[in-house]
Amino acid sequence: MEPLSEHTAKIRDVAARAGVGVATVSRVLNGRAHVSDETRARVLEAMQALDYQPSSVARNLSFRRTMVIGVVVPFLTSPSAVERVRGIVAALSPSEYDLALFDVESEDRRRRAFDIFARPDRTDGLLVVSLIPDAAAVARLDRGRIPCVLVDGAHPHLPHVVSDDVRGGELATRHLLQLGHRAIALIGDKPPDPYRLSGSRDRTTGYLRALGEFEVPHRDEYLREGTQSRDVAQTIATELLQLPDRPTAIFACSDDQALGVLAAASDLGLRVPEDLSVVGFDDVEIASYVGLTTVRQPLFESGRVGAELLLEALAGDGDVESRALDLELMVRRTTGPPPLPGS
Amino acid sequence: MEPLSEHTAKIRDVAARAGVGVATVSRVLNGRAHVSDETRARVLEAMQALDYQPSSVARNLSFRRTMVIGVVVPFLTSPSAVERVRGIVAALSPSEYDLALFDVESEDRRRRAFDIFARPDRTDGLLVVSLIPDAAAVARLDRGRIPCVLVDGAHPHLPHVVSDDVRGGELATRHLLQLGHRAIALIGDKPPDPYRLSGSRDRTTGYLRALGEFEVPHRDEYLREGTQSRDVAQTIATELLQLPDRPTAIFACSDDQALGVLAAASDLGLRVPEDLSVVGFDDVEIASYVGLTTVRQPLFESGRVGAELLLEALAGDGDVESRALDLELMVRRTTGPPPLPGS
DNA sequence: TTGAAAGCGATACCAG
DNA sequence: CTGGTATCGCTTTCAA
Hints:
The structure is a homodimer.
Chain A lengths: L10 H8 L3 H8 L7 H14 L5 H8 L4 E7 L4 H14 L5 E7 L2 H11 L7 E5 L5 H9 L4 E4 L8 E4 L1 H15 L4 E5 L10 H15 L9 E3 L4 H12 L7 E4 L2 H13 L9 E6 L2 H6 L2 E4 L2 H18 L6 E3 L2 E3 L13
Parallel strand pairs in A: 1-2, 1-3, 3-4, 4-5, 5-11, 6-7, 6-8, 8-9, 9-10
Antiparallel strand pairs in A: 10-12
Chain B binds a DNA duplex through helix 1, helix 2 and helix 4.
């Protein structure tokens, strides 16, 4: 046994020990043909003996690829973002690709994310979660020929995976309608700005569509878009529930908001679902704890599918198709028939 | 404006356009001295014009470093692991380092994680969460001179950040003791195997120590180590609560287990905290929802500190010291005085 | 089937 | 101050 050199073995060390040229070592390394079995065996043995591991940096410089997939995700604070990332991790784990995570908490970092990541020498492909790259970023991606898949966000030029939010809004509202409710309010996010998503807005569309189906006219004072926070949702719900003609059901466009609604109801001494029905959206873990009826988004699934799409694009170097994932209504304990008119 | 070439600009393109040598471009790129202001300006202008971005792969090959920090984490499924990773992400965001995430869900991937990641050409440093690298991995790390910090796990040769679990066990148990409880059971994980952590075991030590302080003899039938799952904890709790001499309080070594205990109590018609007090460990998000009294681990903090330690090691190339983070008891609604003997 | 040598895109030494 | 050139570790022609 020769003494272990201070540094790890390089390809030329292997070549020397096996008594061959580096090109040959490279060939067996990459499983290329045109190497005699005998030579191959000798090389393999040398690699073994030296505990040789090719340098991925050098290899990437040659191949002109990085073997890393960048994941840009805003608000890793939110449970749903985490779920999506988990789906991505799961799909990428068996692949050869590494996962580089870039968390975007501010507008500034959003910009940096694409400056840094959207370059061919940094990533072979990009997964963007709950965020829409701006025109400059898309141009950069294009120029670098970096495949990019959007998870939870649509873009005309980029393959994406979204959930069918219109349908989700319909699902929730129709459930309430079928229960007999006619006074149904909606608490939703503020209308989308260019860089964010229109998901929540689509839910409103579904809500209106379901109302239309049942020929229930919609009432402006019941339509409250404008918040993402639990606290604000609570305030809005409190207002709603003190209306002379208060709604018997509230559809909140996120579970977080629904939790605010529940708090408001509790403060006002309203029982759920006897006095008020509540439907959320997302099905975060807490939802099942509080028995919240909600629309489950395939969060994990969306990440998984997004990653698979990207892997496909990377492999087949052809374009891949966008996907809309199905939503599911989880009926639990916060919805029931409306209170009798007299009570 | 000349037409944009198909591929991105290289250093020699910049050199050519600025009418200088590549060495000079490299100098201004790295902010080195020995470049005249005038030349520097010309180069800068050329870089601007060409939208030049140096190739990090090439640069890493030259510098012989990767600028990535590997994060090995088992069970990204668990909320506490996610919290720790969030802390890591937060600490690494402002740094120049990229974050490569490696999720370990199986023994096989655990092995692969270190085979793949513990190499100097892959990562400049490693952060290992809730996992102890085996001897082979440590040797590899050593040989490659890759700094490695353990988060939530101790090792004699590696700097690490842990929470003081013995103290946590004491905190929880002492709280119960002070409330007047004398029949206190413990539900904990199974004793540690070599690759996992002894954290939960330490909690048992703290439990025993607190009992000792109050001169309460411990009873074997109250000491139930052996599970990590909520369901099994529920089964065990059910057994415990049907003992002729049932405990008046249960200390569960994780919130998940505590949730199982709560379910068992509810099934048995026992009121919490009137008939039974329950303390958990971790303070996951749901804990505050169900009002669970628990020991808060500084999860996010542990990740942040771990990452900072690693950054320090990377910068100062000196060894860094391990840290023990403080625990905090969150008293909520699942603990109270024990029921009167007569009732 | 094999090896020598020319890239890949930067850094850094050594002359000038 | 500046530019040529060897170097980092691997892949890939191109001859032999």
